[in-house]
Structures are given as structure tokens and as C-alpha cells.
Amino acid sequence: MAIEAGGLETEPLPTTPAEAEILRAKFRSPRTFDSVLPRLVDWRPEGVSSNGRQRLHLAMAETTYAAVLTDHYPKTFEGLDPDPGAAPRIVEGEASRLLTLSTVLVTADRKMLFAGRSKNAGSHAGLFGPAVNGNLSLRPRDGILPDADSSGIPDPRRALAREAHEELGLALDPQQIRILGLARFTVEKERGTHLLMSSSHLAQTADEVAEGVRLADPLEGRWELGGELLAVPLPTKECDVDPLLSWLLHCPQLTPHAALTGIATLASQFKVDPDRLLCLAAGDGNGGGSFETIPLKW
């Protein structure tokens, strides 16, 4: 995967005085996340190379978490009346264009892992997200170096490996993270977010991953976790793929990041017909999926 950055100028995202005060109040909290994050400007795939791999080129600029809160999350200014004569703010993610990251872990016992999110998590609290979910930091913050390679180029796989260590206490080799593709989603609570989806196969079982969470960083990641992992067995037969796809599409306990990256992980293992996927999405979700919850051992 290669990343290109064009000569793009950064423009501030305008806010009203009342909106600015809401943001200032939010960032006064010591537990509030803040960082300079990637804004997805453009992307293009490249044909399969001689080694059989396809490359994905991303053009990125910078955005801030304050801009993301303003432009992606409708509830940030919920209940705030617009200034007299001003049009209501349209929250669609088109100005900030956040690019966020997700990895579904596939364990040695062939289970896809999703992680429960704490009730104190900043977004999608109480739901199950991908086992590894987070952001690519483009600037140093609180003693944490930017997620960049030796040439200073931002590296999403390094970011995901950092997030895996912070949230799960897991030593994840960035080179073992397989980029699966890009998605964009809009749901009631989060609008227009771009998602770089990936998976990684582990030598550990699901129970061993849960056991290792005691090594997670309590300040940087573990506080976002709920009390359990969701372990979903991968199908062994083609006929079992559709019920799992239906569950991923309709399960109300999953974040959009989890549903999309779970589908991409399945599509990397089995043939997933796009028309069939649309048919399942339009269905009632009765297919169901088998899974187990594994308590985390602090």
C-alpha cells in the first residue's frame, strides 16, 4: 500500500461562537481524545503487480478531531439553535472527510474477533466494534510519535499495530496486517466517515487474546473496552457464508466499522457476490450467526 500527499492547503472549518464554546468545554476534559488526523482527499487502486498484490494509493491532507466532531457527529451541537439568519449546520462529513482504521483479528482457532466498547467510549458506546479500531495520528501527541515509517510517510498499518497494543496488549506485526479496501458509511450518529478495512491472522486463540488484555495500556486504550470480546467462527463451507453475512448486515450490536470490516474479511476468504450481498441487506436479517462472548481478564 502506498500513500501520496499532494500540496494541499488547510482551511479552518468555521464554527459559530456558541459551537466554539461547546468544543472548548469538551476539550477541557482530560479524558477527551485529540489529534491531527487524516482527511481523505482521493484514492485509486492499481492493477495486480508481479507478486500478485494490488496496491491502494491514498491522497490525504490533515484534519483535526474538533473538525471531525463538528462535521461527522450530529449530536455534537444537538439542541443548539443556529444564529439568527444562519442556515442550520449540515453534518455529512464532506468537509472533514475523516479516514479511520479497523482490523478484524482472525484467531488460530478461526474466529473473527470484535471488541465490546465501554460505556465511556467517545462514540458507539456499548456496541461491538472491530477488535482493533482507531486513527492514524499525523502529529506527535502526549509523547506518542506520529504513525509514520522510517521515511516519515504516514503508515496506517503502524497505527493499527499501535492501537492493538494499546487496546488489547497485543503485539501485532504491521506487515501481517492485510489491507482489504475502503468503505464509506453514514448512520444516525456518524455521517460520511471513510474506513480503511483490514484483517490480521494471529497465532493466538480467542481465549489467549482475551487473557492478554491485562497487558493493554489503561490510559491510551483499555479504558475504551467493555467487558468482553465477541468471537465469531469463520464458516468452513460456502453454504454457511450467507447466514453470517446477513448477521453482519443486520446485527444492531455491531458498529458500522465492525459490520463493514467483518464483511470485507469474509470476502477475502470466500466469494461474496455483490448482488447477493444487496439482497441480504434488503432482507429481514433472520439468517443469524453463531458466536460466543469471552469475558476480558483484567
Task: Explain this structure.
It is globular and about 60 Å long. The chain is built from 7 helices and 11 strands. The strands form 2 sheets. Strands 4, 5, 6, 7, 8, 9, 10 and 11 form an 8-stranded mixed sheet that branches. A 3-stranded mixed sheet has the order 1-3-2. It is of the alpha+beta class. It starts with a strand and ends with a strand. The N terminus is likely disordered.
Q: Which shape, going by the Cα principal axes?
A: globular
Low-confidence stretches: 1-5
Strand content: 25-35%
Work out the helicity level: 10-25%
Radius of gyration: 19 Å
Count of helix runs: 7
Average residue pLDDT? 89
Main structural class: alpha+beta
How many strand segments?
11
What are the secondary-structure elements, in order, as H or E? EHEEHEEEEHEEHEHHHE
C-alpha end-to-end distance: 35 Å
* Largest β-sheet summary: 8 strands, mixed
For this entry, give a set of tags.
298 residues, alpha+beta, 3-stranded mixed β-sheet, 11 strands, 24% helix, globular, disordered N terminus
What's the topology here?
Blueprint: E1 2-4, H1 17-27, E2 36-46, E3 55-64, H2 65-72, E4 99-106, E5 111-117, E6 128-130, E7 132-134, H3 156-168, E8 177-185, E9 193-201, H4 206-212, E10 225-233, H5 241-250, H6 256-269, H7 274-282, E11 292-295
Parallel strand pairs: 1-3, 4-9
Antiparallel strand pairs: 2-3, 4-5, 4-7, 5-6, 5-10, 8-9, 10-11
Helix pairs in contact: 5-6, 5-7
Short description:
With 298 residues, this protein is of the alpha+beta class. The chain has helices at 17-27, 65-72, 156-168, 206-212, 241-250, 256-269, 274-282; strands spanning 2-4, 36-46, 55-64, 99-106, 111-117, 128-130, 132-134, 177-185, 193-201, 225-233, 292-295. It has 7 helices and 11 strands.
